[in-house]
């Protein structure tokens, strides 16, 4: 969409059709243009960051200042202030005035006073006011009654690395002549690739054109300026908006021709900071981007610092910003989203400052161009020459204007993880949080705000997902005005960070996602975003091998012979990888001993892991192991040698969980030891998969390696240590596929996903429980990350029995594997599993990498259903499982999603059932030809229907018994004629 400007002509460009970050210096508004949505905020007259808008796309030309009219202060709200802050920071508007001596200012004041009498003279009136105040201040300063204040500079930088597509902003000086002739100069906008730019420069060199002339004239202003009616703002103050209209005209003409960030000629001449806020209101009234505590905002604050004098105030004001293409990673080892090429994203780095202490808080915003996603994080920089304490530091604050808010969260317990819970918000604070040292089974670092009750395919949804595996908090505070504040980040409970002089602290990233197509729209974006920009890239397109895990087959009774026997039978079933779970190391025969001693138990494995791995490889199978490196049993060699290496408080009892203690991963020595041990196992033989477990939460969070004032840092340092261990091990063994796990799905979060491509969903392998667990998990996490196995019946967690078909279909919607003693299988059962493994392999690319559409919600109906559609929309697979059958009740028709309306599809039922009840007698009958969804006397029927009918009318379906399931393949065959 970009047209280059030559020196004499200007062609109209529409820079805003491109996703990216735009700054309008006149209204001081930042617009973060995502694929189909916009996120906007501005520097208000008090230099706070006022949040303006987050939602579906609107014309970028629209000035969002009108939103300020929604700020209705109550009589009890502390008012905002502008004078002190602006003068002490030398904002744009007063730089020229400040350089003058008091006599000259007095002259200026008179001029402005005269100008201020014109009917449309908002600006002169403000300048009159300002010059009067500056004149007075100058007089006071001269008389010694006011000490000099350092002037801060307002820096606006636009960086653009030379590689890949960039948005260049060339700063060029404004010539006097051009200014007086009303030309718009100073910046030109171009969109070209780095190589294109080089080519153009080369061309210019050849032609001897040299540097482009400074400035390009733009066509005269166009567009009608409609007069706005006079409106009343505040008591007795009437402001005619026509003067604002004038500003908007200038702004719009600037923006229309691509000089969005250029000051108008008038601004250039006068370097004017124009007061634009409809009314100065206090912080409590406004929507803010990042909020301090104690200066008027009574909502839950974004951060809190404590200085050595005991004070905790840190009001922040805008100081500078940079916009660049690409994205910076958070500091190692914090996980974060990455770009595959700079053109994937644009980043805004905005520095705010405490005017008194000069401490800096940098807000990072990255727009992912192909998504409706903004990634935020915050960095604290201590510019003092003494330490300060960070008491609270959320990654983001999201303020919303009044609406009908609902919060949807993923909560549950061990073996019942990530259940979808929705509540209507009412005045007060709702928390979704963990203080367990891990993201936890109980709550997931995720939440979605919807306007009205959440729906799957419609309605606005605003989601937050934190890239962090430790203590987190999402707090949603609905305040008296009906407005909503959502904060998310590290849990401030039990947290503090001692920030030394010159040091920086970065929060984890939070991934904000918007959709006007309900929860489905949110999930589809997260799935793709996390697959391409979060998970280890090595695994993003790999179909994970079908594995068998020894846990439910043998528990601690693993031996060389038993595992080899299991492997042989697994091979017959078509399984490709054998995973040796718990019990293979140290003196590990139960949960009481062995953790920490990562050497094979020679009683059970006389040939070591090497011998076992060799034999399994010789069978043509791959080999993997289970480890739990963050833990230690008291009965272990490690604990005997290093009793101080676990988290504990000297002289106090050490709380065990599952008979184990947590190693203190905040200590480098502890990490080094564990990493060394794990590395030596992984290099001892051909291990291609690791299940990395973590089976208890943290207690006595205290480290021997840190002084008392740093103990509030340990939970965070611990998880950073865990990340470092993941990073070091996976960089030494990049070919090893890591599946992370925590007593099932107790650490299923984006932080873990960054380091491990798969995560074990839950210790509950019951197919019907899994329908809900996996459905809930799919709200955020891609199907290809969900560890899911077929287990034996009765199920070990619920004692429930379900058919092999149902267990297989549910496990197929994830990484897929087996967790059963296949040694016990009959020949027929082996054959049955073999055919299911073939089915899974055939459909794995569609399931793992297709787009997921959820059809029936198992939390609000008796059945769960979803489907996967390939990118071309030519193929789809539908899976549904009944959880609770109400006899006599007909099911609703199943409406498919995501296919083409005007294509014709064949819908074929795969794996029909075997059982039915005789309607006359009630007896159970088996039908060797299969029990089909749609059948005639001749047998099963394949439907041939348009996408439109399949989606709008839906297909009739039935379940014969509780726990029954169905599988349809959908294939496009022709265009609708
Ligand atoms: C956790 C895991 C299980 C299994 C056991 C082994 O509970 O979630 O899958 O690995 O540990 O102790």
TrEMBL record:
<keyword id="KW-0378">Hydrolase</keyword>
<feature type="compositionally biased region" description="Low complexity">
    <location>
        <begin position="213"/>
        <end position="232"/>
    </location>
</feature>
<dbReference type="InterPro" id="IPR013780">
    <property type="entry name" value="Glyco_hydro_b"/>
</dbReference>
<dbReference type="GO" id="GO:0016052">
    <property type="term" value="P:carbohydrate catabolic process"/>
</dbReference>
<feature type="domain" description="Glycosyl hydrolase family 36 C-terminal">
    <location>
        <begin position="865"/>
        <end position="960"/>
    </location>
</feature>
<protein>
    <recommendedName>
        <fullName>alpha-galactosidase</fullName>
        <ecNumber>3.2.1.22</ecNumber>
    </recommendedName>
</protein>
<dbReference type="InterPro" id="IPR013785">
    <property type="entry name" value="Aldolase_TIM"/>
</dbReference>
<dbReference type="Pfam" id="PF16875">
    <property type="entry name" value="Glyco_hydro_36N"/>
</dbReference>
<dbReference type="InterPro" id="IPR000111">
    <property type="entry name" value="Glyco_hydro_27/36_CS"/>
</dbReference>
<dbReference type="InterPro" id="IPR050985">
    <property type="entry name" value="Alpha-glycosidase_related"/>
</dbReference>
<dbReference type="Pfam" id="PF16874">
    <property type="entry name" value="Glyco_hydro_36C"/>
</dbReference>
<dbReference type="InterPro" id="IPR031705">
    <property type="entry name" value="Glyco_hydro_36_C"/>
</dbReference>
<dbReference type="InterPro" id="IPR031704">
    <property type="entry name" value="Glyco_hydro_36_N"/>
</dbReference>
<feature type="domain" description="Glycosyl hydrolase family 36 N-terminal">
    <location>
        <begin position="280"/>
        <end position="499"/>
    </location>
</feature>
<dbReference type="InterPro" id="IPR038417">
    <property type="entry name" value="Alpga-gal_N_sf"/>
</dbReference>
<dbReference type="InterPro" id="IPR013860">
    <property type="entry name" value="AreA_GATA"/>
</dbReference>
<feature type="domain" description="Nitrogen regulatory protein areA GATA-like">
    <location>
        <begin position="125"/>
        <end position="137"/>
    </location>
</feature>
<dbReference type="InterPro" id="IPR017853">
    <property type="entry name" value="GH"/>
</dbReference>
<dbReference type="Pfam" id="PF02065">
    <property type="entry name" value="Melibiase"/>
</dbReference>
<dbReference type="InterPro" id="IPR002252">
    <property type="entry name" value="Glyco_hydro_36"/>
</dbReference>
<dbReference type="GO" id="GO:0004557">
    <property type="term" value="F:alpha-galactosidase activity"/>
</dbReference>
<keyword id="KW-0326">Glycosidase</keyword>
<dbReference type="Pfam" id="PF08550">
    <property type="entry name" value="GATA_AreA"/>
</dbReference>
<feature type="region of interest" description="Disordered">
    <location>
        <begin position="191"/>
        <end position="232"/>
    </location>
</feature>
């Amino acid at each position: 969409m970009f047209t280059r400007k030559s020196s004499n002509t200007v062609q109209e460009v529409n820079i805003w059709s491109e996703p990216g970050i735009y700054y309008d210096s006149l209204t001081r508004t930042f617009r973060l243009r995502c694929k189909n949505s916009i996120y906007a905020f501005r520097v208000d007259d008090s230099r706070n960051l006022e949040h303006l808008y987050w939602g579906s796309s609107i014309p970028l030309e629209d000035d969002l200042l009108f939103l300020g009219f929604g700020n209705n202060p109550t009589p009890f709200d502390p008012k905002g202030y502008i004078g002190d802050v602006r003068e002490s920071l030398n904002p744009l508007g007063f730089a020229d005035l400040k350089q003058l001596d008091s006599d000259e200012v007095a002259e200026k004041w008179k001029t402005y006073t005269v100008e201020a009498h014109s009917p449309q003279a908002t600006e002169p009136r403000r300048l009159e006011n300002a010059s009067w105040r500056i004149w007075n201040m100058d007089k006071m300063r001269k008389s010694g009654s006011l000490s000099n204040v350092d002037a801060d500079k307002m820096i606006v930088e636009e960086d653009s690395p030379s590689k890949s597509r960039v948005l260049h902003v060339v700063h060029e000086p404004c010539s006097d002549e051009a200014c007086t002739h009303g030309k718009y100069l100073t910046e030109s906008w171009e969109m070209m690739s780095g190589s294109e730019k080089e080519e153009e420069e080369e061309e210019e060199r050849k032609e001897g054109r040299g540097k482009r002339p400074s400035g390009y004239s733009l066509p005269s202003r166009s567009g009608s300026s409609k007069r706005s009616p006079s409106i009343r703002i505040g008591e007795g103050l009437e402001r005619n908006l026509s003067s604002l209209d004038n500003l908007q005209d200038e702004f719009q003409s600037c923006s229309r021709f691509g000089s969005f960030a250029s000051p108008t000629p008038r601004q250039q001449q006068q370097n004017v900071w124009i007061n634009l806020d409809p009314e100065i209101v206090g912080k409590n009234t406004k929507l803010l981007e990042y909020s301090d505590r104690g200066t008027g905002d009574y909502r839950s604050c974004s951060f809190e610092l404590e200085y050595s004098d005991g004070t905790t105030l840190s009001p922040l004001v805008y100081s500078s910003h940079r916009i660049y293409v690409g994205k910076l990673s958070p500091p190692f080892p914090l996980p974060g989203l990455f770009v595959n090429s700079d053109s994937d994203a644009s980043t805004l780095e905005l520095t705010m400052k405490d005017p008194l202490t000069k401490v800096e808080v940098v807000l990072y915003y990255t727009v992912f161009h192909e998504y409706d996603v903004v990634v935020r994080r915050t960095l604290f920089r201590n510019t003092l020459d003494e330490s300060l304490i960070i008491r609270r530091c959320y990654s983001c604050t999201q303020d919303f204007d009044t609406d009908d808010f609902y919060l949807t969260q993923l909560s549950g317990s061990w073996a019942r993880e990530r259940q979808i819970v929705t509540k209507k918000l009412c005045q007060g604070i709702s928390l979704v949080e963990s203080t367990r040292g891990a993201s936890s089974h109980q709550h997931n670092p995720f939440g979605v705000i919807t306007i009205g009750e959440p729906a799957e395919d419609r309605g606005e949804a605003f989601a937050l997902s934190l890239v962090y595996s430790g203590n987190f908090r999402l707090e949603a505070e609905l305040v008296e005005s009906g407005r909503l504040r959502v904060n998310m980040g590290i849990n401030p409970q039990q947290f503090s960070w001692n920030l030394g002089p010159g040091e920086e602290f970065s929060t984890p990233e939070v991934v904000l996602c918007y959709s006007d197509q309900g929860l489905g729209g949110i999930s589809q974006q997260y799935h793709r975003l996390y697959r391409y920009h979060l998970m280890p890239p090595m695994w993003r397109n790999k179909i994970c091998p079908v594995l068998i895990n020894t846990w439910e087959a043998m528990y601690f009774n693993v031996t060389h012979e038993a595992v080899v026997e299991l492997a042989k039978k697994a091979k017959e079933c078509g399984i490709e990888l054998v995973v040796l779970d718990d019990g293979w190391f140290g003196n590990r025969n139960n949960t009481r001993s062995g953790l920490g001693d990562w050497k094979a138990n020679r009683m059970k494995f006389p040939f070591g892991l090497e011998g076992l791995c060799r034999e399994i490889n010789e069978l043509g199978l791959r080999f993997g192991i289970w480890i739990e490196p963050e833990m230690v049993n008291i009965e272990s060699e490690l604990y005997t040698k290093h009793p101080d290496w676990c988290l504990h408080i000297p002289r106090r009892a050490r709380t065990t969980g599952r008979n184990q203690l947590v190693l203190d991963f905040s200590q480098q020595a502890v990490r080094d030891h564990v990493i060394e041990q794990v590395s030596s196992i992984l290099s001892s033989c051909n291990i291609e998969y690791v299940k990395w477990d973590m089976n208890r939460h943290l207690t006595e969070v205290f480290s021997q390696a840190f002084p008392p004032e740093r103990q509030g840092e340990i939970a965070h340092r611990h998880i950073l240590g865990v990340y470092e261990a993941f990073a070091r091990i996976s960089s030494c063994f990049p070919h090893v596929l890591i599946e992370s796990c925590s007593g099932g799905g107790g650490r299923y979060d984006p932080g873990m996903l960054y380091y491990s491509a798969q995560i074990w969903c839950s210790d509950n392998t019951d197919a019907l429980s899994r329908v809900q667990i996996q459905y809930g998990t799919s709200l955020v996490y891609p199907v290809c990350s969900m560890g899911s196995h077929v287990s034996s019946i009765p199920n070990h967690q619920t004692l429930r029995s379900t058919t092999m078909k149902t267990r297989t279909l549910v496990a197929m919607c994830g990484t897929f594997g087996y967790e059963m003693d296949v040694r016990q299988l009959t020949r027929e059962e082996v054959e049955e599993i073999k055919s299911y493994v073939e089915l899974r392999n055939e459909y794995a690319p569609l399931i793992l990498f297709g787009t997921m559409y959820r059809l029936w919600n198992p939390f609000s109906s008796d059945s769960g259903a979803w489907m996967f559609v390939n990118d071309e929309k030519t193929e789809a697979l539908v899976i549904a499982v009944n959880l609770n059958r109400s006899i006599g009740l007909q099911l609703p028709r199943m409406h498919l999603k995501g296919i083409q309306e005007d294509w014709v599809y064949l819908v074929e039922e795969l794996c029909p059932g075997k059982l039915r009840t005789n309607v006359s007698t009630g007896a159970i009958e088996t039908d060797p030809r299969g029990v089909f969804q749609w059948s005639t006397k001749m047998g099963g029927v394949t439907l041939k229907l348009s996408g439109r009918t399949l989606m709008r009318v839906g297909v009739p379906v039935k379940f014969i018994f509780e726990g029954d399931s169905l599988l349809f393949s959908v294939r496009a065959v022709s265009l609708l004629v």
